[in-house]
Design goal:
140 residues; Nucleotidyltransferase, domain 5; alpha/beta
C-alpha cells in the first residue's frame, strides 16, 4: 500500500492527524479485563474471621446452637456428640419443624475448618434454610 502525493489534485492533501479509534478500543478492552480480575485479586487478603462486630439480636429459644471446640469436638447445645455421624439425623429432625429454627454455629477460632465444614455440609444436606455463625465483637 502506497501513498500518492499528487500535486495536481489540490483537494486531497496529506492528513497529518492520528487515528485514535484503535487506541481507544484497546484501552476499553484493557479496562474491562482489569475490572474483571481485580475482585479475584482482592479476595486473597488474609483476615481473622471470628472477631466481627455484630448487631445485638434477641436470642430465640428455638434456635439450634452447635459448638465446635478447638479440638474439633461437636456439641449439640451443651451435649457432646460422640462423633459427627449422628449430626445429620438431629439436623433432619430440626429441618422438619415448622417454622424451621435457625442453626447457629459457634466455631472456635483455633479449630480446623474440617469439623465446621462437616456441620455446614450436614445442615445443607438436611435442608436447613438459615445458618449463622456466632462471633465475638473485637476488643476496643
Amino acid at each position: 500500500m502506497g501513498m500518492r502525493f499528487d500535486s495536481t489534485d489540490s483537494e486531497d492533501g496529506l492528513i497529518a492527524s492520528i487515528n485514535t479509534t484503535p487506541l481507544v478500543d484497546v484501552m476499553l478492552v484493557l479496562l474491562i479485563i482489569f475490572l474483571i480480575t481485580i475482585p479475584v485479586v482482592n479476595s486473597s487478603i488474609a483476615v481473622k474471621l471470628p472477631l466481627e462486630p455484630n448487631v445485638q439480636k434477641d436470642a430465640n429459644r428455638e434456635n439450634v446452637i452447635i459448638t465446635v471446640d478447638a479440638q474439633g469436638a461437636i456439641y449439640w447445645f451443651e451435649t457432646r456428640l460422640p462423633d459427627a455421624s449422628g449430626l445429620p439425623e438431629l439436623l433432619a429432625r430440626v429441618a422438619a419443624m415448622q417454622p424451621q429454627p435457625e442453626l447457629h454455629i459457634r466455631g472456635d477460632a483455633r479449630a480446623d475448618y474440617a469439623p465446621i465444614g462437616q456441620v455446614v455440609e450436614a445442615a445443607q444436606q438436611a435442608g436447613i434454610a438459615r445458618i449463622g455463625f456466632l462471633t465475638e465483637p473485637p476488643s476496643r
